[in-house]
Design a protein that fits this description.
Number of helices: 9
Number of domains: 1
Radius of gyration: 28 Å
Largest sheet: 5 strands, mixed
Length: about 375
């Protein structure tokens, strides 16, 4: 069975969600996120697009190159090979030191020799293979002759052609960002499903005997300080060797330079402007892997918190039958190894057709991600 899957369909849906056409919908990321396993009068316009006026003295293209948010996921992506093997080691148990058993301490002593060849304990190892990849393409065709009739100079025509390539590059950047967004959302779903998540509002109400509601939590100064402190403390606790902070109960730790702290923008803004003392907020921001996230999966139609703070992910490696749905997510603290792009490839091709005086341009892309439950990851939410 091939480990390549065409994912243009899910990318079209994901980009539609990102652009705010509707609320985030369930996305099945199984195929590429691996957990170990206008105008009608044609006479006035060009003969190709039917949208460019034939006599324009100046054309301004409102096109900007979109740069994706760097979430420290594409850090070690390979172009060659089919799989990545990842090795895990178990800590050995302690045993008695034979140095103090050689003699019984009496005079004359009774000696007992420890045979060095009697040591049979090994370091237990396990491994997982990661290799799922999603592939997609962008293909466009544009003319050379008809475009000339829409412009009065080579410079103007060149600027327009540049805008076409910028649009293609922007779409590809959006696709790349969408795959990373879905991979990170899958990592969040993995942690939530494994119980590696904290409902900060629930523990706050229990600890202080309050009944604060979700609708008011992000405007409550006391809760914002409490939540910021909890997220900061968790970030520090992950520095120590432990099995507590990952879904696989694997003994590991996360140093500061490998720690990624992703905080929902609305929570970060409230913490920054409503807290009289920004101590807690500054503790988070100064971490090298701190990043603010506008939405975990999609923006919805109005960037409402109910949409931007929600994930709706189905992945057969998490649950074969059900999607993982979680709302109110305000932070995701993880080791950079928890979600990572192991494969990333891009090929560009272009072919002129001299007979019809057109050019066909193509982009072919590949992404393959791994969500590793052995690496530390914790989700904070309010519900």
């Amino acid at each position: 069975m091939s480990n390549y899957t065409q994912i243009y369909g899910i990318l079209n849906d994901a980009v539609s969600d990102v652009l705010g056409n509707q609320a985030p919908r369930v996305k099945d990321t199984t195929s590429f996120v691996d957990l170990g396993r206008a105008m009608a009068d044609a006479n006035m316009y060009d003969a190709f697009y039917g949208a460019l006026a034939c006599r324009i003295s100046k054309t301004v293209a409102f096109v900007r190159l979109y740069e994706r948010n760097n979430r420290r996921i594409v850090t070690d992506a390979q172009e060659f090979g089919a799989y990545v093997q990842k090795i895990y080691t178990e800590l050995p148990d302690d045993v008695a030191d034979p140095t103090w058993n050689v003699s019984n301490g009496q005079n004359p002593p009774t000696l007992q020799t420890a045979n060095p060849y009697d040591v049979n304990t090994t370091v237990n190892i396990s491994s997982k293979i990661y290799g799922k990849k999603g592939v997609w393409a962008i293909e466009v065709k544009f003319p050379t002759k008809q475009i000339k009739e829409a412009f009065l100079s080579g410079e103007a025509m060149g600027a327009f052609i540049d805008s076409l390539y910028t649009t293609i590059e922007t779409r590809l950047n959006l696709d790349m960002e969408a795959t990373e967004t879905l991979a990170a959302a899958t990592a969040i779903a993995t942690s939530v499903n494994a119980g590696k998540a904290t409902n900060l509002l629930q523990v706050y109400n229990q600890e202080f005997g309050k009944s604060l509601q979700v609708s008011m939590a992000l405007n409550d100064v006391s809760f914002l300080a409490y939540a910021s402190e909890k997220i900061t403390r968790m970030s520090k606790n992950m520095r120590r060797m432990s099995k507590v902070f990952n879904a696989a109960a694997y003994p590991t730790f996360t140093p500061d330079d490998k720690l990624v702290v992703e905080v929902h923008t609305e929570f970060a803004s409230k913490a920054q402007f409503l807290l009289q003392s920004n101590t807690f907020h500054e503790e988070l921001v100064k971490l090298p892997g701190y990043n603010e996230i506008d939405y975990w999966q999609g923006s919805g139609t109005s960037y409402a918190f109910a949409d931007t703070a929600k994930i709706n992910i189905k992945n057969a490696d998490i649950d074969a039958n059900n999607a993982v749905v979680q709302s109110g997510i305000i932070a995701f603290v993880r080791d950079e190894e928890n979600v990572k792009a192991y494969y990333s490839d891009r090929e560009t091709w272009e072919l002129p057709n001299p007979r019809e005086r057109t050019i066909v341009h193509g982009e072919q892309a590949e992404k393959g991600f791994a969500v590793d439950p052995h690496a530390n990851a914790w989700v904070f939410y309010i519900a």
